[in-house]
Amino acid sequence: MIAVVVLTHGRVHLLRQCVENVLARTSELTTEIVIWDNASTDGTAAYLDSLDDSKIRIVHHSRNIGQSAYADAFRMTSAPYMIELDDDVVDAPPEWDRTLLEAFVALPQIGFLAPNIADNPHDQLAKVMRERAHLYSTEESNGILLLRGPVGGACAMTSRELNERVGGFRKNRKQIFWLEDAAYIEDIAKLGYSAAYLHDLRITHAGGPYYSSASAAKDDYWRAYWQRINRKNAVKKALLRVPLARRLNNRYRWFDPSETPN
Q1: Is-contact 193 112, C-beta < 8 A?
Q2: What CA–CA distance (Å, rounded) separates 64 from 45?
Q3: Other CB atoms closer than 10 Å to residue 251's CB: what's the count?
Q4: For the residues of 48-90, what is the DSSP string, one character each?
Q5: Domain-by-domain residue ranges, the chain?
Q6: How many CA atoms lie within 13 A of 135 on its CB side?
Q7: Residues 6+ positions from 95 with CB-CB distance below 8 Å
């Protein structure tokens, strides 16, 4: 019924918690689990080889291909529902997969449904969501409470049918770290589907420097990302100094001045 794929690289201390506190708490609805090791060198391989669970399939890849591994890993499975799960998701309630599936099936307009993120003071994702609280709103659909706003793929469900309709998860041959989840949300949006958090199902995410060192690929990605954002903001600020441009922006709302730092 459900296939779960976990990608991991060099974080065996977090992976162990993910296996024991998240994967071990799945219901009988999860019939396939693939843990894909992106060429770790920290003891991850030995830990994975020690696991004894007939549902778990281990892949030891020879190099780190980052999030692009989702495309290959899910092709190894056949279940009609698919969950991508980061190795730094370290806690979830019992049968969280069942709760997620029941909501997903009841929400035909949602193509990417994620558990909500517990408010963890040390987690980078939880911090970002607090700082960007103005971008989120609650919404009830078919009796289910959703959190609408930017959705990440730390743990999220989609259907195989929808995934195949958009050509599967994208691969990026140039970057190891990139926003594969955002690319998928963009792809399903073209077919009229959206993404959301399931408000009352919460998982614990352990991301950021408190828990582990960022990879060079992740540092490079975010450095380039913020350089692009800063350049765009500089152009917007320059335009807003021109009276005609400001008036035109007020009329056509090309961008929101409140989101452009002073």
Answers
A1: yes
A2: 13
A3: 8
A4: HHH---TTEEEEEESS--GGGHHHHHHTT---SEEEEEETTEE
A5: 2-205, 216-259
A6: 13
A7: 25, 26, 27
Gap between the Cα atoms of 258 and 173, Å rounded: 36
Q: What is the mean pLDDT of the chain?
A: 92
Amino acid letter, 141: S
- pTM for the structure as a whole: 0.86
- Give tens-digit pLDDT for 72-94: 999 999 999 999 999 999 999 99
Q: Which residue has the tokens 């994967």?
A: 23
The residue assigned the tokens 């909501």 is: 103
Stated as kind and residue range, the H or E segment containing 64 is none
Ramachandran angles phi, psi of 231, nearest 5°: -65, -45
| 85 alpha carbon, distance to own chain's centre | 8
CA distance 97 to 102: 9
Amino acid at 67: Q
Residue at 108: amino acid letter: P
Rounded to whole angstroms, the Cα distance separating 227 from 157 reads: 32
Q: Whole-angstrom Cα distance, residue 81 to residue 204?
A: 22
The interaxial angle of helices 216-240 and 243-252, nearest 10 deg, is 110
Span 2-205 CATH architecture: Alpha-Beta Complex (3.90)
